[in-house]
Design brief:
single chain, 7 helices, 2 strands, 65% helix
């Protein structure tokens, strides 16, 4: 591929950079001082999850994780198609930055899967088992890393094309299987949003009780 002065290891850093930018955008609400044409964002600049909640769209935790699987599968499909065109094109005729969407899609998939998985592990487990359940979740990440290391022998021409294609198929099937098995297993709200909602309800009940006692 044509580097055009781009360092070989720069594209690999797109994954953490995209994560740093994308994760805060998942669940943020910023005041908007400039009016817009959309009533939903006239008062606030709402990001992904708050905007979906405002539009009464329940983006359930299982749907978030499934979305992550699909994005990862799309990244592998993109990488496989790109690798095919690299094989059939002239040497150094394809710019190295055309690989960027694959890294960014993988980062988006990690944001949906890992962040949501950690929220579930922390909020759904009993208080005495939160650390243990979170450790089990990270254990699955470690197993995935070990699988990646085991695939090192096939990361060479021409096997790498079939590796990308196989990973795309396996990831898509795994995402569909996950959704089929757990689509009705969790509440629509999960994580800090649920804790804040429960905390507000508790404070409201305390205020009502204090008002009754004063009377």
């Amino acid at each position: 591929m044509a580097l055009h002065g781009t360092p070989n290891d720069l594209l690999q850093n797109l994954d953490p950079i995209a994560l740093i930018i994308f994760i805060p955008l998942l669940d943020c609400t910023l005041r908007n001082s400039t009016p817009t044409h959309w009533p939903a964002v006239n008062r606030f600049i709402v990001c992904i999850y708050p905007l979906l909640r405002k539009w009464k769209i329940q983006f359930r935790p299982v749907a978030r994780i499934t979305t992550g699987f699909i994005m990862c599968a799309l990244a592998m499909v993109y990488a496989a198609v790109l690798q095919h065109y690299i094989y059939i094109s002239e040497p150094n005729s394809i710019h190295v930055w055309i690989q960027a969407p694959a890294y960014i899609l993988v980062a988006f998939s990690e944001a949906f899967v890992i962040v949501t998985g950690l929220e579930i592990a922390f909020t759904k487990a009993p208080e005495s088992l939160r650390s243990f359940v979170s450790a089990l979740f990270w254990l699955t990440i470690g197993i995935a890393a070990a699988i990646c290391i085991s695939l090192t022998p096939v990361t060479k021409d021409p096997e790498i094309l079939w590796m990308y294609a196989s990973l795309a198929i396996v990831t898509f099937v795994a995402g569909g299987t996950f959704y089929a098995c757990f689509r009705n297993s969790l509440d629509p709200r999960v994580g800090l949003d649920l804790q804040i909602h429960e905390g507000l309800e508790s404070d409201h009940r305390k205020d009502e009780l204090a008002a009754k006692m004063d009377v």
